[in-house]
Amino acid sequence: MPTVTRVRKQLAADGTHWHIEGVCTEDGTHYPRAEVATRIDRGEAWFSSGGGAETRIRTIVSCPMPPCSASPYLTTAPEHTAANNLENLPRC
Question: In which domain, by residue range, is 28 found?
Answer without folding.
Answer: 3-88
